[in-house]
Inverse folding.
């Protein structure tokens, strides 16, 4: 598998790579990716879930049992359940969010996709998102998946991050540049 050395070098990347290999061999990459998205949403929404995965006072056995119950409740695939058990047994549940992000990157790379994070001052309409996706796909030469978020501090415009590239067209940055030029 050809993925960046940065992902493979990280602890989360090694776990994500191993999970991706197992999912590929079993032909369940899509199911595992869906499971991980469900887990990421649960981590984002539930303080109890974050506490379960990060509290060092909760033992590995207790974490494993609790994660098995969570996995059953969420209807996760067998491979994902076993993977969560392995993370709990190895004391690595605190890295779950990083593992999910690394898995997303690996899976997207295998599909020939690139993910762009778009930050705007106001929520974008579906038409604006489609237009932006079309332009970025043409620019990058491969399919672009967009992740959007809102930051009112930008005042207007967009900040687009694709991998290590950043396109900053925000009004805040333009005003800061103008202020710096006027100081000189």
């Amino acid at each position: 598998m050809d993925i960046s050395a940065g992902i493979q070098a990280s602890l989360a990347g090694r776990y994500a790579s191993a999970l991706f290999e197992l999912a590929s061999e079993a032909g369940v990459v899509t199911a595992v990716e869906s499971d991980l998205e469900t887990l990421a949403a649960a981590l984002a929404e539930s303080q109890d879930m974050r506490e379960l995965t990060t509290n060092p006072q909760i033992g590995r056995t207790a974490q494993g049992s609790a994660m098995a119950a969570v996995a059953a409740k969420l209807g996760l695939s067998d491979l994902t359940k076993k993977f969560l058990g392995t993370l709990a047994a190895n004391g690595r549940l605190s890295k779950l969010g990083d593992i999910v992000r690394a898995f997303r990157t690996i899976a997207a790379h295998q599909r020939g996709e690139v993910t762009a994070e778009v930050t705007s001052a106001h929520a974008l309409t579906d038409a604006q998102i489609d237009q932006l996706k079309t332009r970025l796909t043409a620019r990058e030469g491969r399919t672009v998946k967009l992740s959007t978020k809102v930051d009112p501090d930008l005042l207007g415009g967009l900040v687009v991050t694709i991998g290590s590239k950043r396109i900053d067209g925000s009004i805040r940055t333009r005003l800061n540049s103008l202020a710096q030029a006027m100081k000189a």
